[in-house]
Amino acid sequence: MDVPHVSCSTDFPGSRPSTFAPLTPRSTMATAPTSTVRTYSSTALAAWIAVGLLWFAGGSNYLTRTMLTTMRGSVIEDIPMSDAQFGLLTSAFLWLYALASPFGGFLADRFSRRMVVLVSLFAWSGITLVTAYVHTFELFLALRALLGLAQAFYIPAGVALIVDYHLGPTRALAGGIHLTGMIFGAVIGGIGGWIAEKHGWSQAYISIAVPNMAIGVLLFFFLRNAPREHPVAVATPGGPPAISLGDALRSLAKPGPYYYMVLCMSVQGAISWIIIAWMPTVMREQFQLKQGAAGFSTLGFLYGAQTIGLLIGGFWSDRWSLTNPRSRVIIPSLAILFATPFFWMTGTIHHISLTLGSLSLWGLAMGFLGANTMPIVCLVVDARFRATAIGILNACTAIWGGLAIYGIGALRDRQIGVSLILTFVSGGVLLCGLLLWMVNVSLKRGGLGAVPARAGTG
Q1: pTM of the model as a whole
Q2: How many angstroms separate the Cα of 114 from the Cα of each of 64, 111, 125?
Protein backbone atom coordinates (compact mmCIF):
# COMPACT_ATOMS: atom_id res chain seq x y z
CA MET A 1 0.00 0.00 0.00
CA ASP A 2 1.27 3.45 -0.89
CA VAL A 3 2.05 5.70 2.04
CA PRO A 4 1.20 9.41 1.60
CA HIS A 5 4.34 11.52 1.30
CA VAL A 6 4.60 14.50 3.66
CA SER A 7 7.66 16.69 3.40
CA CYS A 8 9.23 18.37 6.41
CA SER A 9 11.63 20.30 4.19
CA THR A 10 10.29 23.73 5.08
CA ASP A 11 11.24 23.17 8.69
CA PHE A 12 14.66 21.58 8.38
CA PRO A 13 17.15 23.38 6.14
CA GLY A 14 18.97 20.81 4.04
CA SER A 15 17.01 17.90 5.46
CA ARG A 16 15.43 14.98 3.67
CA PRO A 17 11.66 14.53 3.44
CA SER A 18 10.07 12.08 5.79
CA THR A 19 7.68 9.52 4.35
CA PHE A 20 6.13 8.71 7.69
CA ALA A 21 6.52 11.63 10.08
CA PRO A 22 3.69 14.19 10.10
CA LEU A 23 4.45 17.86 9.53
CA THR A 24 5.34 19.32 12.91
CA PRO A 25 4.83 22.99 13.81
CA ARG A 26 7.96 24.84 14.85
CA SER A 27 6.45 25.54 18.24
CA THR A 28 6.55 21.84 19.12
CA MET A 29 9.98 21.10 17.73
CA ALA A 30 11.82 22.15 20.84
CA THR A 31 10.63 18.98 22.50
CA ALA A 32 11.89 16.70 19.72
CA PRO A 33 14.00 13.80 20.97
CA THR A 34 17.77 14.08 20.81
CA SER A 35 18.04 11.30 18.23
CA THR A 36 15.92 13.29 15.77
CA VAL A 37 18.21 16.31 16.13
CA ARG A 38 21.28 14.15 15.51
CA THR A 39 19.73 12.67 12.37
CA TYR A 40 18.89 16.13 11.05
CA SER A 41 22.35 17.49 11.83
CA SER A 42 24.17 14.65 10.07
CA THR A 43 21.88 14.88 7.01
CA ALA A 44 22.27 18.65 6.76
CA LEU A 45 26.04 18.30 7.04
CA ALA A 46 26.09 15.75 4.22
CA ALA A 47 23.97 18.10 2.07
CA TRP A 48 26.43 20.97 2.44
CA ILE A 49 29.45 18.69 2.01
CA ALA A 50 27.96 17.65 -1.33
CA VAL A 51 27.69 21.31 -2.36
CA GLY A 52 31.30 21.92 -1.36
CA LEU A 53 32.59 18.94 -3.32
CA LEU A 54 30.57 19.85 -6.40
CA TRP A 55 31.82 23.46 -6.10
CA PHE A 56 35.31 22.19 -6.92
CA ALA A 57 34.00 19.96 -9.70
CA GLY A 58 32.07 22.86 -11.25
CA GLY A 59 35.16 25.07 -11.10
CA SER A 60 37.18 22.35 -12.80
CA ASN A 61 34.50 22.04 -15.48
CA TYR A 62 34.57 25.71 -16.45
CA LEU A 63 38.33 26.15 -16.07
CA THR A 64 38.95 23.25 -18.45
CA ARG A 65 36.55 24.48 -21.12
CA THR A 66 37.63 28.15 -21.10
CA MET A 67 41.41 27.99 -20.74
CA LEU A 68 41.99 27.35 -24.47
CA THR A 69 40.86 30.89 -25.34
CA THR A 70 43.62 32.33 -23.12
CA MET A 71 46.47 30.47 -24.86
CA ARG A 72 45.64 31.08 -28.53
CA GLY A 73 49.08 32.41 -29.44
CA SER A 74 50.96 29.49 -27.86
CA VAL A 75 48.72 26.87 -29.49
CA ILE A 76 48.85 28.41 -32.98
CA GLU A 77 52.62 28.78 -32.76
CA ASP A 78 52.97 25.02 -32.17
CA ILE A 79 50.04 23.77 -34.28
CA PRO A 80 49.54 26.09 -37.28
CA MET A 81 45.88 26.88 -37.94
CA SER A 82 43.76 29.71 -39.27
CA ASP A 83 41.54 31.90 -37.14
CA ALA A 84 38.54 30.03 -38.53
CA GLN A 85 40.06 26.71 -37.45
CA PHE A 86 40.86 28.06 -34.00
CA GLY A 87 37.24 29.21 -33.70
CA LEU A 88 36.11 25.76 -34.81
CA LEU A 89 37.79 24.28 -31.72
CA THR A 90 35.25 26.10 -29.55
CA SER A 91 32.35 25.50 -31.95
CA ALA A 92 33.00 21.74 -31.95
CA PHE A 93 32.96 21.75 -28.16
CA LEU A 94 29.70 23.70 -28.10
CA TRP A 95 27.92 21.52 -30.68
CA LEU A 96 28.72 18.22 -28.97
CA TYR A 97 27.94 19.75 -25.59
CA ALA A 98 24.50 20.84 -26.78
CA LEU A 99 23.66 17.55 -28.48
CA ALA A 100 24.71 15.43 -25.50
CA SER A 101 23.19 17.51 -22.69
CA PRO A 102 19.63 16.09 -22.84
CA PHE A 103 20.94 12.52 -22.98
CA GLY A 104 23.33 13.27 -20.10
CA GLY A 105 20.38 14.54 -18.10
CA PHE A 106 18.40 11.39 -18.81
CA LEU A 107 21.28 9.18 -17.63
CA ALA A 108 21.36 11.18 -14.38
CA ASP A 109 17.62 10.53 -13.96
CA ARG A 110 17.86 6.86 -14.90
CA PHE A 111 21.03 5.87 -13.05
CA SER A 112 23.18 7.02 -10.13
CA ARG A 113 23.72 10.79 -10.25
CA ARG A 114 26.97 10.35 -8.32
CA MET A 115 28.29 7.90 -10.90
CA VAL A 116 27.38 10.20 -13.81
CA VAL A 117 29.25 13.06 -12.11
CA LEU A 118 32.33 10.90 -11.51
CA VAL A 119 32.45 9.42 -15.02
CA SER A 120 32.06 12.90 -16.53
CA LEU A 121 34.79 14.40 -14.33
CA PHE A 122 37.34 11.62 -14.93
CA ALA A 123 36.52 11.68 -18.66
CA TRP A 124 37.17 15.40 -19.11
CA SER A 125 40.29 15.17 -16.94
CA GLY A 126 41.67 12.34 -19.08
CA ILE A 127 40.83 14.15 -22.31
CA THR A 128 42.60 17.26 -21.00
CA LEU A 129 45.71 15.21 -20.23
CA VAL A 130 45.75 13.51 -23.64
CA THR A 131 45.29 16.88 -25.37
CA ALA A 132 48.69 17.97 -24.02
CA TYR A 133 50.39 15.45 -26.33
CA VAL A 134 48.66 16.12 -29.67
CA HIS A 135 50.51 17.81 -32.52
CA THR A 136 47.92 18.06 -35.30
CA PHE A 137 44.85 20.22 -35.71
CA GLU A 138 42.65 17.24 -36.55
CA LEU A 139 43.42 15.45 -33.28
CA PHE A 140 43.04 18.68 -31.32
CA LEU A 141 39.61 19.22 -32.90
CA ALA A 142 38.51 15.66 -32.14
CA LEU A 143 39.54 15.99 -28.50
CA ARG A 144 37.74 19.33 -28.12
CA ALA A 145 34.58 17.70 -29.43
CA LEU A 146 35.04 14.82 -26.99
CA LEU A 147 35.56 17.34 -24.19
CA GLY A 148 32.16 18.86 -24.98
CA LEU A 149 30.63 15.38 -24.92
CA ALA A 150 32.21 14.53 -21.56
CA GLN A 151 31.33 17.81 -19.87
CA ALA A 152 27.70 17.75 -21.05
CA PHE A 153 26.89 15.07 -18.47
CA TYR A 154 28.10 16.99 -15.43
CA ILE A 155 25.71 19.91 -14.93
CA PRO A 156 22.40 17.98 -15.19
CA ALA A 157 23.66 15.34 -12.76
CA GLY A 158 25.35 17.80 -10.39
CA VAL A 159 22.44 20.21 -9.97
CA ALA A 160 19.95 17.33 -9.70
CA LEU A 161 22.03 15.78 -6.94
CA ILE A 162 22.06 19.09 -5.08
CA VAL A 163 18.26 19.39 -5.14
CA ASP A 164 18.01 15.76 -4.01
CA TYR A 165 19.90 16.84 -0.90
CA HIS A 166 18.44 20.32 -0.46
CA LEU A 167 14.71 20.78 -0.09
CA GLY A 168 12.70 23.87 0.78
CA PRO A 169 14.61 26.74 2.37
CA THR A 170 18.14 25.81 1.20
CA ARG A 171 17.56 24.70 -2.40
CA ALA A 172 18.29 27.95 -4.27
CA LEU A 173 21.17 29.04 -2.04
CA ALA A 174 22.83 25.64 -2.41
CA GLY A 175 22.47 25.84 -6.20
CA GLY A 176 23.78 29.39 -6.19
CA ILE A 177 26.88 28.46 -4.20
CA HIS A 178 27.55 25.62 -6.64
CA LEU A 179 27.39 28.02 -9.58
CA THR A 180 29.87 30.40 -7.94
CA GLY A 181 32.39 27.57 -8.35
CA MET A 182 31.78 27.59 -12.09
CA ILE A 183 32.23 31.35 -12.21
CA PHE A 184 35.46 31.00 -10.26
CA GLY A 185 36.68 28.43 -12.76
CA ALA A 186 35.83 30.70 -15.69
CA VAL A 187 37.53 33.70 -14.08
CA ILE A 188 40.79 31.83 -13.36
CA GLY A 189 40.81 30.40 -16.89
CA GLY A 190 43.59 32.90 -17.56
CA ILE A 191 45.95 30.72 -15.53
CA GLY A 192 46.17 28.50 -18.60
CA GLY A 193 47.46 31.40 -20.67
CA TRP A 194 49.99 32.32 -18.00
CA ILE A 195 51.37 28.77 -17.79
CA ALA A 196 51.40 28.50 -21.58
CA GLU A 197 53.37 31.72 -21.84
CA LYS A 198 55.97 30.53 -19.33
CA HIS A 199 56.19 26.80 -20.03
CA GLY A 200 54.21 26.05 -23.20
CA TRP A 201 50.58 25.13 -23.79
CA SER A 202 51.18 21.38 -23.32
CA GLN A 203 52.44 21.96 -19.80
CA ALA A 204 49.38 24.12 -19.14
CA TYR A 205 47.07 21.25 -20.08
CA ILE A 206 49.02 18.83 -17.86
CA SER A 207 49.00 21.31 -14.97
CA ILE A 208 45.20 21.56 -15.18
CA ALA A 209 44.50 17.85 -15.83
CA VAL A 210 46.30 16.50 -12.77
CA PRO A 211 44.40 18.62 -10.18
CA ASN A 212 41.18 17.76 -12.03
CA MET A 213 41.87 14.07 -11.45
CA ALA A 214 42.66 14.77 -7.80
CA ILE A 215 39.22 16.39 -7.47
CA GLY A 216 37.73 13.26 -9.03
CA VAL A 217 39.43 11.07 -6.44
CA LEU A 218 38.13 13.34 -3.67
CA LEU A 219 34.56 13.03 -4.96
CA PHE A 220 34.92 9.27 -5.39
CA PHE A 221 35.59 8.82 -1.68
CA PHE A 222 33.32 11.48 -0.19
CA LEU A 223 30.42 12.22 -2.56
CA ARG A 224 27.31 10.12 -2.02
CA ASN A 225 23.88 9.91 -3.61
CA ALA A 226 20.92 11.36 -1.74
CA PRO A 227 17.47 9.70 -1.59
CA ARG A 228 15.27 10.99 -4.40
CA GLU A 229 11.81 12.42 -3.99
CA HIS A 230 10.62 10.01 -6.68
CA PRO A 231 13.08 7.06 -6.71
CA VAL A 232 12.12 5.12 -9.86
CA ALA A 233 15.43 5.00 -11.69
CA VAL A 234 15.83 1.23 -11.80
CA ALA A 235 13.12 -1.40 -12.13
CA THR A 236 12.89 -3.74 -9.13
CA PRO A 237 10.64 -6.77 -8.52
CA GLY A 238 7.29 -5.50 -7.28
CA GLY A 239 8.37 -1.87 -7.76
CA PRO A 240 7.59 0.74 -10.41
CA PRO A 241 9.01 0.27 -13.92
CA ALA A 242 12.26 1.91 -14.92
CA ILE A 243 11.91 5.20 -16.74
CA SER A 244 12.89 5.54 -20.39
CA LEU A 245 14.07 8.42 -22.53
CA GLY A 246 10.73 8.30 -24.32
CA ASP A 247 8.92 8.70 -20.98
CA ALA A 248 11.01 11.75 -20.18
CA LEU A 249 10.52 13.42 -23.56
CA ARG A 250 6.78 12.75 -23.61
CA SER A 251 6.40 14.20 -20.12
CA LEU A 252 8.45 17.32 -20.90
CA ALA A 253 6.66 17.83 -24.24
CA LYS A 254 3.29 18.32 -22.54
CA PRO A 255 2.09 21.94 -22.88
CA GLY A 256 2.77 23.92 -19.75
CA PRO A 257 5.16 26.32 -18.01
CA TYR A 258 8.21 24.29 -19.06
CA TYR A 259 7.63 25.55 -22.63
CA TYR A 260 8.10 29.13 -21.43
CA MET A 261 11.18 28.07 -19.48
CA VAL A 262 12.77 26.55 -22.60
CA LEU A 263 12.10 29.73 -24.60
CA CYS A 264 13.37 31.95 -21.78
CA MET A 265 16.64 30.02 -21.42
CA SER A 266 17.14 30.04 -25.20
CA VAL A 267 16.92 33.85 -25.24
CA GLN A 268 19.03 34.10 -22.10
CA GLY A 269 21.75 31.96 -23.68
CA ALA A 270 21.78 34.15 -26.77
CA ILE A 271 22.11 37.36 -24.74
CA SER A 272 24.76 36.00 -22.37
CA TRP A 273 26.95 34.68 -25.20
CA ILE A 274 26.61 37.97 -27.10
CA ILE A 275 27.80 39.83 -24.01
CA ILE A 276 30.70 37.47 -23.33
CA ALA A 277 31.83 37.29 -26.96
CA TRP A 278 31.18 40.82 -28.21
CA MET A 279 30.93 43.30 -25.33
CA PRO A 280 34.73 43.49 -24.87
CA THR A 281 34.94 44.54 -28.54
CA VAL A 282 32.12 47.05 -28.07
CA MET A 283 33.88 48.52 -25.01
CA ARG A 284 37.15 48.79 -26.91
CA GLU A 285 35.60 50.50 -29.92
CA GLN A 286 33.15 52.73 -28.10
CA PHE A 287 35.41 53.95 -25.30
CA GLN A 288 38.88 53.45 -26.86
CA LEU A 289 39.97 51.00 -24.17
CA LYS A 290 42.91 48.66 -24.58
CA GLN A 291 42.12 44.99 -25.19
CA GLY A 292 42.97 43.86 -21.65
CA ALA A 293 41.07 46.68 -19.98
CA ALA A 294 38.00 46.10 -22.14
CA GLY A 295 37.93 42.38 -21.38
CA PHE A 296 38.55 42.84 -17.68
CA SER A 297 35.88 45.54 -17.39
CA THR A 298 33.25 43.47 -19.18
CA LEU A 299 33.82 40.13 -17.49
CA GLY A 300 34.82 41.58 -14.13
CA PHE A 301 31.60 43.56 -13.69
CA LEU A 302 29.49 40.77 -15.21
CA TYR A 303 30.86 37.90 -13.12
CA GLY A 304 31.21 39.99 -9.97
CA ALA A 305 27.56 40.98 -10.07
CA GLN A 306 26.52 37.44 -10.99
CA THR A 307 28.29 36.02 -7.94
CA ILE A 308 26.46 38.48 -5.68
CA GLY A 309 23.19 37.62 -7.42
CA LEU A 310 23.69 33.89 -6.94
CA LEU A 311 24.09 34.27 -3.19
CA ILE A 312 21.52 37.01 -2.54
CA GLY A 313 18.99 35.63 -5.02
CA GLY A 314 19.31 32.12 -3.62
CA PHE A 315 18.94 33.22 -0.01
CA TRP A 316 16.06 35.62 -0.81
CA SER A 317 13.98 33.14 -2.78
CA ASP A 318 14.57 30.39 -0.22
CA ARG A 319 13.07 32.61 2.48
CA TRP A 320 10.20 33.94 0.35
CA SER A 321 9.34 30.50 -1.05
CA LEU A 322 8.19 29.45 2.42
CA THR A 323 5.08 31.60 1.84
CA ASN A 324 5.04 31.83 -1.97
CA PRO A 325 6.67 29.06 -4.06
CA ARG A 326 6.40 31.25 -7.17
CA SER A 327 9.02 33.57 -5.68
CA ARG A 328 11.55 31.32 -7.44
CA VAL A 329 10.21 32.79 -10.71
CA ILE A 330 9.15 36.27 -9.59
CA ILE A 331 12.55 37.40 -8.29
CA PRO A 332 14.66 36.68 -11.43
CA SER A 333 11.94 37.78 -13.87
CA LEU A 334 11.57 41.20 -12.22
CA ALA A 335 15.36 41.59 -12.09
CA ILE A 336 15.64 40.88 -15.83
CA LEU A 337 12.82 43.28 -16.69
CA PHE A 338 14.45 45.97 -14.53
CA ALA A 339 17.68 45.65 -16.56
CA THR A 340 15.90 46.18 -19.90
CA PRO A 341 15.79 50.01 -20.06
CA PHE A 342 19.44 50.27 -19.05
CA PHE A 343 20.51 48.13 -22.01
CA TRP A 344 18.36 50.26 -24.28
CA MET A 345 19.98 53.44 -22.94
CA THR A 346 23.48 52.06 -23.56
CA GLY A 347 22.62 52.06 -27.27
CA THR A 348 21.66 55.75 -27.23
CA ILE A 349 23.76 57.25 -24.42
CA HIS A 350 27.42 56.37 -24.84
CA HIS A 351 28.79 56.60 -21.32
CA ILE A 352 31.03 53.97 -19.81
CA SER A 353 29.39 54.08 -16.38
CA LEU A 354 25.99 53.36 -17.95
CA THR A 355 27.40 50.45 -19.96
CA LEU A 356 29.10 48.96 -16.92
CA GLY A 357 25.92 49.50 -14.92
CA SER A 358 23.85 47.59 -17.47
CA LEU A 359 26.38 44.75 -17.45
CA SER A 360 26.20 44.63 -13.65
CA LEU A 361 22.39 44.56 -13.67
CA TRP A 362 22.38 41.73 -16.21
CA GLY A 363 24.95 39.83 -14.13
CA LEU A 364 22.87 40.33 -10.99
CA ALA A 365 19.72 39.13 -12.80
CA MET A 366 21.58 36.10 -14.15
CA GLY A 367 22.70 35.31 -10.62
CA PHE A 368 19.07 35.41 -9.46
CA LEU A 369 18.08 33.18 -12.38
CA GLY A 370 21.01 30.79 -11.99
CA ALA A 371 20.29 30.15 -8.33
CA ASN A 372 16.62 29.51 -9.07
CA THR A 373 16.76 27.60 -12.37
CA MET A 374 16.68 24.14 -10.83
CA PRO A 375 14.13 25.14 -8.14
CA ILE A 376 11.91 26.44 -10.96
CA VAL A 377 12.36 23.16 -12.83
CA CYS A 378 11.28 21.38 -9.64
CA LEU A 379 8.03 23.38 -9.78
CA VAL A 380 7.20 22.75 -13.44
CA VAL A 381 8.30 19.18 -14.34
CA ASP A 382 7.82 15.65 -13.06
CA ALA A 383 10.33 14.91 -10.29
CA ARG A 384 11.53 11.85 -12.20
CA PHE A 385 12.81 13.92 -15.14
CA ARG A 386 14.50 16.93 -13.54
CA ALA A 387 18.01 16.22 -14.82
CA THR A 388 16.67 15.59 -18.33
CA ALA A 389 14.84 18.92 -18.17
CA ILE A 390 18.05 20.71 -17.17
CA GLY A 391 19.92 18.94 -19.96
CA ILE A 392 17.43 20.26 -22.52
CA LEU A 393 17.72 23.79 -21.11
CA ASN A 394 21.52 23.50 -21.30
CA ALA A 395 21.29 22.41 -24.92
CA CYS A 396 19.02 25.32 -25.86
CA THR A 397 21.33 27.80 -24.14
CA ALA A 398 24.37 26.49 -26.03
CA ILE A 399 22.65 26.25 -29.44
CA TRP A 400 21.09 29.70 -29.40
CA GLY A 401 24.21 31.19 -27.84
CA GLY A 402 26.30 29.92 -30.74
CA LEU A 403 23.79 31.19 -33.31
CA ALA A 404 23.67 34.60 -31.63
CA ILE A 405 27.45 34.98 -31.66
CA TYR A 406 27.49 34.21 -35.38
CA GLY A 407 24.53 36.53 -36.01
CA ILE A 408 26.17 39.52 -34.35
CA GLY A 409 29.32 38.85 -36.34
CA ALA A 410 27.26 38.85 -39.54
CA LEU A 411 25.64 42.14 -38.57
CA ARG A 412 29.05 43.70 -37.98
CA ASP A 413 30.25 42.44 -41.36
CA ARG A 414 27.33 44.37 -42.85
CA GLN A 415 28.57 47.51 -41.06
CA ILE A 416 25.70 47.54 -38.54
CA GLY A 417 26.60 50.00 -35.79
CA VAL A 418 27.17 49.26 -32.11
CA SER A 419 24.11 51.26 -31.06
CA LEU A 420 21.76 49.08 -33.08
CA ILE A 421 23.38 45.92 -31.71
CA LEU A 422 22.84 47.10 -28.12
CA THR A 423 19.22 47.98 -28.96
CA PHE A 424 18.82 44.44 -30.30
CA VAL A 425 20.22 43.08 -27.03
CA SER A 426 17.78 45.20 -24.98
CA GLY A 427 14.89 43.69 -26.95
CA GLY A 428 16.20 40.26 -26.08
CA VAL A 429 16.45 41.17 -22.40
CA LEU A 430 12.81 42.30 -22.42
CA LEU A 431 11.69 39.11 -24.17
CA CYS A 432 13.65 36.97 -21.70
CA GLY A 433 11.98 38.66 -18.72
CA LEU A 434 8.49 38.40 -20.23
CA LEU A 435 8.90 34.70 -21.03
CA LEU A 436 10.05 34.00 -17.48
CA TRP A 437 7.10 35.99 -16.13
CA MET A 438 4.81 33.77 -18.19
CA VAL A 439 6.14 30.81 -16.19
CA ASN A 440 4.85 32.60 -13.10
CA VAL A 441 1.48 33.30 -14.76
CA SER A 442 1.16 29.69 -15.88
CA LEU A 443 1.95 28.36 -12.41
CA LYS A 444 -0.56 30.73 -10.83
CA ARG A 445 -3.26 29.63 -13.28
CA GLY A 446 -2.38 26.05 -12.42
CA GLY A 447 -3.19 26.71 -8.77
CA LEU A 448 0.27 27.26 -7.30
CA GLY A 449 -0.32 30.20 -4.96
CA ALA A 450 0.84 31.57 -1.65
CA VAL A 451 1.22 29.16 1.27
CA PRO A 452 -0.75 30.09 4.40
CA ALA A 453 1.39 30.75 7.44
CA ARG A 454 1.50 27.73 9.75
CA ALA A 455 1.10 27.75 13.47
CA GLY A 456 4.28 28.42 15.31
CA THR A 457 6.16 29.85 12.35
CA GLY A 458 5.73 33.45 13.31
Answers
A1: 0.79
A2: 20, 9, 17
CATH numeric code, 51-243: 1.20.1250.20
- Say what the pLDDT of residue 29 is: 32
Q: Around Cβ 198, how many Cβ atoms within 10 Å? A: 10
Q: Answer yes or no: are the C-beta atoms of 159 and 171 closer than 8 Å.
A: no
The better pLDDT of the pair 414, 226 is held by: 226
Residue spans of the domains in the chain: they are: 51-243, 244-451
Which letter, b or e, does each residue of 218-242 get, where b requires 16 or more Cβ atoms within 10 Å of its Cβ?
ebeeebebbebbeebbeeeeeeeee
Name residue 18's beta-bridge partners.
6
Domains 51-243 and 244-451 equal at CATH topology level: yes
Which top CATH class is 244-451?
mainly alpha
Longest dimension (CA), the chain: 72
Q: Where are the alpha helices (DSSP H) in 154-253?
A: 154-165, 171-187, 190-199, 201-222, 245-252
Specify the 3-state DSSP secondary structure of 270: helix
Give me the DSSP letters along 13-54.
TTPPPBSSSPP--GGGGGG--HHHHHHHHHHHHHHHHHHHHH
Render pLDDT for 75-129 as a digit per residue (tens, 0 to 9): 888 888 887 788 788 888 888 999 999 999 999 999 999 999 999 999 999 999 9
What per-residue confidence (pLDDT) applies to 423?
Answer: 77
Q: Are 111 and 120 in contact (CB under 8 A)?
A: no
Range 443-448, long-range pairs (CB < 8 A, 24+ positions):
443/257, 443/325, 443/326, 443/329, 443/379, 443/380, 444/326, 446/256, 446/257, 448/325, 448/326, 448/379
- Those residues whose C-beta lies under 8 Å from the C-beta of residue 357, and which sit 6 or more positions away, are 342
Q: pLDDT (tens digit, 9 = 90+) per residue, 124-145?
A: 999 999 999 999 999 999 999 9
